[in-house]
Amino acid sequence: MIVVILFWCFVGICVLHLFYWSIPFGKLAFLNPKVLPQTNCPPVSIIVCAKDEFVNLSSFLPKILEQDYPLFEVLLVDDGSEDGTSKLVKKLAHQYAYFKCLSITEEEKGSRVGKKYPLSKGIEAAKYELLLLTDADCIPASNQWVKSMVSSKSGKKEMVLGFSPYRKMGGWLNRFIRFEAVYTAIQYMGFALVGQPYMGVGRNILYQKEHFKRVDGFSRHEHIASGDDDLLVNAVANKENTVICLVKDSFVYSEPKKTLRGYYRQKTRHLTTGVHYKWQHQMMLGGLSLSHFGFYVLGLGLLCVGYQSKMVLFLLLVISLIKFFFYKKILKKLSQEDLLGYVLLLDALFVFYYLIFIPDLLKGPTNRWK
Fold first, then answer.
1. Domain boundaries, the chain
2. Is the dihedral of CA 267, 270, 275, 279 positive or negative?
3. Exposed e or buried b for every residue in 169-184, given b needs 16+ CB within 10 A?
4. How far is CA 330 from CA 14, 117, 288, 321, in A?
5. Distance CA 104, CA 80 (A)
6. Which end of the chain is less crowded, N or C, counting CB atoms within 10 A of the terminal residue's CB?
7. Which CATH superfamily is domain 36-276 in?
8. What are the tens digits of pLDDT across the range 259-307?
């Protein structure tokens, strides 16, 4: 009797999983990214927060400063760095008149945790109303990054969700990190396309200063170290004001973690913000996670006990082929084609991602931002 119930649960989960892949994710797969004509070039404030990032800033900050855009400033918010960042700042300030640095001392920051206070001070100090955010370990794909993101704005679409892949390196950890970034992008971009934007990544996002002021900045969740990007989007974004950008010049590449421990710390910090999303977004994402987890666990479990094996195997194969087809189209759009040969294996291994990080979700948020 139990195995019969589990079989029909598996069938229902397959239907649910197919719904996610055919509607929001399918819409992303068939989207045709367009470079819109640049009819308007409003001034932009690019904000970068950094804490002891001298090495990354030395390599990547010049690429941000050398963007091909009529009028912009680059504002570095230095969160009490002690690694020589100040020397680099002085050097760059002599080279670029539109570069400035805002230093945050430990005394000023006080007991405030995470990146939110430095970022809020940067937004407050920004010269222009249009804000483009990224991180200290990020490098734009080209000098057309700012143009590509700004050109995605049109009409009421004033919040632009960009893509930020991780740099390709060797090894399975790097493959999984890059796949996870792709899968996250599939979710927030796919849901945005069907009118349910719920998050963006702070490594590549553009919005108006007015959006920040409208929700009183980070005041509602300032006690949480993470969430400077997704919780703000979750509070402000809607189908009327949000758009995604898939133009490849708009991509911003980030440095991946090189150890399991570093990756684990990063993800526990990021994932614990999800419990603060709007309830409908939590339900939406919970359904996706349930369908993803159940698809593999129930499917393989039923095969092991030999119940309705032909039907179970048929559903596993058909849905996997459909997912492979959509992954192929999406990976090409995201310039991650080299993952295609591993994508179904990585998709299945994501089951362990849920098992590892669910306990941390239950424990609650961390107070680290680095």
1. 2-28+280-363, 36-276
2. negative
3. eeeebbbbbbbbbbbb
4. 21, 36, 18, 14
5. 6
6. N
7. Spore Coat Polysaccharide Biosynthesis Protein SpsA; Chain A (3.90.550.10)
8. 988 888 877 766 667 778 889 999 999 999 999 999 999 999 999 999 9
